[in-house]
Amino acid sequence: MGRFGKALVVGNAELCGLPSGIICGGPVSVASLATSSLGVQRTRVLSHSTIIAIVAAAVIAVAVCLITLMNMRARRRKNKELLVYESTQPSPDSNLITGKLVLFSKTLPSKFEDWEAGFMALLDKECLIGGGAIGTVHKVSLNGGLAIAVKKLEISSRVKNLEEFEQEIGRLGNFRHPNLVALQGYYSSSTMQLILSDFIPNENLYNHLHERHPGHSPLSWGKRFKIALGTAKALAYLHHDCKPPILHFNVKSTNILIDDDFEPHLSDYGLTKLLPMLDSYISPSRTFHAAVGYVAPELACQSLSSSFLTDKCDVYSFGVILMELITGRRPIESPESEVVHLCEYVRSSVERGDGAACIDPNLLLQPDNEIMEVLKLGLICTAQIPSKRPSMAEIVQVLESIIPNSELQ
User: Is 104 helix (H, G, I), strand (E, B) or coil?
Assistant: First the structure.
C-alpha cells in the first residue's frame, strides 16, 4: 500500500488520524490531556474515599452491635444476680407488711412465701443471736436447712431515704472476700428494714477467748494467728481494694465471726455509710463508744473534726485485737475495782522487758519469737499518733513474713 502525504487529506474535516494531524474524537490539547488525567485521578481519589467511608461505616456498625450485645449480656447477668421479689398482696394470716425483697444470691429461696415464713422467726426470742448499734441480729432457718443472719433495724433507726439506703446496701452486696461476712440481700417496707447476710456457725472471737464453753479447748497459737491474718486481710481489702474505701470504725472481737475451719469473717462493715441515712443518726464517735477499749483516741474525742477519722482508726482497733489474741485478756478489765487498759498493760510490760508475762498461759508452750513479734506489731498499731501506725496492707505483709501462709494449718 502506498504512502499518502498530508497534502492529500488537508481540508477534509471528516478525515482524522495521523496524516491529518487530527486526533480522532475531537481536538485535544495539552491542557485537555492534563484535565483528563486529573479527572481520572479524581475518580480514583473518590473511589478510595468511598471505600474508606464504607469500611469505616462497617466498623462503626460492628462496634455498635458488639457494644449492644455486651450491654444486653451485662443486663442479663445483673438480672440473674439481682433477684427482686415484691409482695403486692400479703397473705391473710401474715403479720408482715407488704414490702420488697432483694437478693444478691441465686442459692437462696425464690418464693416470697418461703421468706415470709422465715421472717416470722424474728418474733421468736430464741432466734435472737446478737445486737448492734442499729438493731438486733437473728438466725433465720429457711427451707432445705439453709440458715442466714438477719439484722433487723430498730424502729428508732428507720430509714429516711429508702432509695439511697437500698443503693448503699446494693453496693456493699457487691463486695466479696473470704474473710468478710457476705451480704445476701435486704427486705424493706414502710415500717421494717432487714439486712440479710451469711450465717457463720461457730460464734465469735470474743466467745472463744473469754466465754469458752466447758470442755472446749482454748485456741491454739496456730488458730489465733490464722484469725489475726484473716482479719487483717479483710480490713486491707476494705481499705485498699474497695472504691471508695470502706472504713469500719467498729472492729472488735464480737464482730469477728469464726467458722468451723476457724477462718475469721469480719461483720458490720459499711455501717458508717448507713448511719447517716437513719432517723436516729448518731455520729460514729458516739455510736461506737460501746466498743470500750477498741476505740482509737482520735475517734473517741468528739471535739475533733471528721478529718481525723481515717483508716488508722481501724488499725488501732486491730492492734487491740492482736493483744487480745496473745494475752487472752479483755481490752478493759476491772479486777478488784481497778480498771486495767490492755494497751497500757502490754506497753508497760514490754518497756520493763517483761513482755513474756503478758502472754496467755495457754500459749506458754508455743514459739516465743513469733508471739513476741505479733505483740510488738500490736503496740505499733496502737501508737497514739495516727501517722505512726502502719497501713493494713503493710500489716498483712508483716504477718505473712512472721508465718508464711504455707505453714498455717
Answer: coil
Query: Residue 278: which pLDDT band, with cuts at 50, 70 and 90?
Result: low
Residue 248's nearest CA partner among 96, 133, 333 is 133
Q: Is this prediction's pTM over 0.85? A: no
SS3 category, 330: coil
For residue 314, give the 3-state DSSP assignment. helix
Q: Is the distance from CB of 342 to CB of 316 less than 8 angstroms?
A: no
Cell of 261: 475451719
Q: What's the sign of the alpha-carbon dihedral 95, 98, 103, 106?
A: positive
CATH number (1.10.510.10, 3.40.50.720, 3.40.50.80, 3.60.140.10) of 205-407 reads 1.10.510.10
403 CB neighbour count, 10 Å cutoff: 19
Q: Which three cell numbers stand for residue 308?
A: 481525723
Question: For the segment 165-216, what is each residue's pLDDT rounded down to a tens digit?
Answer: 788 888 888 899 999 999 998 888 777 788 899 999 889 999 999 998 887 8
Residue 155's pLDDT is 57
Q: What is the DSSP string of 248-270?
A: -S---GGGEEE-TT--EEE--TT
C-alpha cell at 335: 479486777
**Helix or strand holding residue 170 (H, E):** helix 162-173
Q: Spelled out in words, what is the top-level CATH class assigned to the domain 84-198?
A: alpha beta
